[in-house]
Design brief:
alpha/beta, TIM Barrel, 8-stranded parallel barrel, two-stranded antiparallel sheet, 12 strands, plasmid
Length: about 280
């Protein structure tokens, strides 16, 4: 299995159906697009035709939501075969998924569920990452989750858990700054401590997104513009992550493409201001 993954320092967007027509109609000022892998793990149809046309003009990253690395069973063989087929079709920048579990006994909750940060969970996740990386013959990127509960059994911090995953499996990281902001607020830890505890040299991609205010917790809804607090984290960490790609992530209340391109311009400008200051 390849043990290294070359950096790619572009600025991108998620490929979403409301924007298909505009993206295909004319070149867009983006360096890459990210897809939700499961939306394209199909035998045919318009989504794959659109993806083929987009891939002819832009690099593409694959981002999954159903690998369930924290569940006892992990991803099924059929899932991995379909994922591998899509990967072979488009030759992505990388393949990523989340530090979470999504189901058990063949049932998918369609939610990114938290797992206890224990040595038992570490062994389970490492076993599944090793299996997937061997199957795909490439390293995975693992995304930090947004969480709303912790477990009394936890023996790792989340940043310590992710760091150890990288050390044991050779995986890389997808750093979601909105998730760091949300979890730091919900659990009362320092976002700066979290970022300082990660092996930032293993980060290959970042997400910038928005969230919603619940009664007491922040909720990772991906349905709003990037807020000031997340932009502030981006400004802080950008000088140390010039080797990584960054994208604006929006999954609900999707605005016109022009609005997301404006946010992407803000990400570029803030990065330039702090890197070249």
């Amino acid at each position: 299995m390849p043990t290294s993954l070359a950096p790619f320092s572009g600025f991108g967007l998620g490929l979403r159906p409301p924007h298909y027509e505009a993206i295909l109609a004319s070149p867009q000022p983006v360096d890459f697009f990210e897809i939700i892998s499961e939306n394209f793990m199909i035998d045919g149809g318009r989504p794959l035709l659109v993806l083929d046309r987009v891939r002819a003009d832009y690099p593409v990253a694959m981002h999954g939501v159903s690998m369930s690395l924290g569940s006892p069973d992990g991803p099924g063989t059929d899932y991995l075969r379909r994922l591998h087929a899509l990967m072979t079709r488009i030759d992505p920048l990388w393949v990523s998924d989340h530090l979470c579990w999504t189901g058990v006994n063949g049932r998918n909750s369609h939610d990114l569920l938290p797992l206890p940060l224990t040595e038992e969970a570490m062994a389970t996740v490492c076993r599944h990452i090793d299996r997937v990386q061997t199957f795909l013959q490439r390293p995975l990127l693992i995304e930090n989750p947004s969480t709303y509960v912790t477990f009394a059994e936890d023996t790792y911090t989340e940043w310590g858990f992710l760091s150890e995953l990288c050390r044991r499996t050779g995986c890389y990281l997808l750093l979601d700054l909105n998730n760091v902001f949300v979890s730091a607020h919900n659990h009362g830890f320092s976002a700066q401590t979290y970022l300082n505890g990660l092996p930032l040299e293993r980060v290959r991609q970042m997400h910038l997104a928005g969230h919603s205010q619940g009664e007491t917790l922040l909720i990772d809804t991906h349905d709003a513009p990037v807020p000031d607090g997340v932009w502030a984290l981006w400004t802080e960490v950008a000088p140390r992550l010039s080797h990584a790609a960054v994208m604006i992530e929006r999954d609900d209340e999707i605005p016109p493409l022009s609005e997301l391109l404006s946010e992407l311009d803000t990400a570029r400008r803030l990065a330039s201001d702090v890197v070249y200051a």
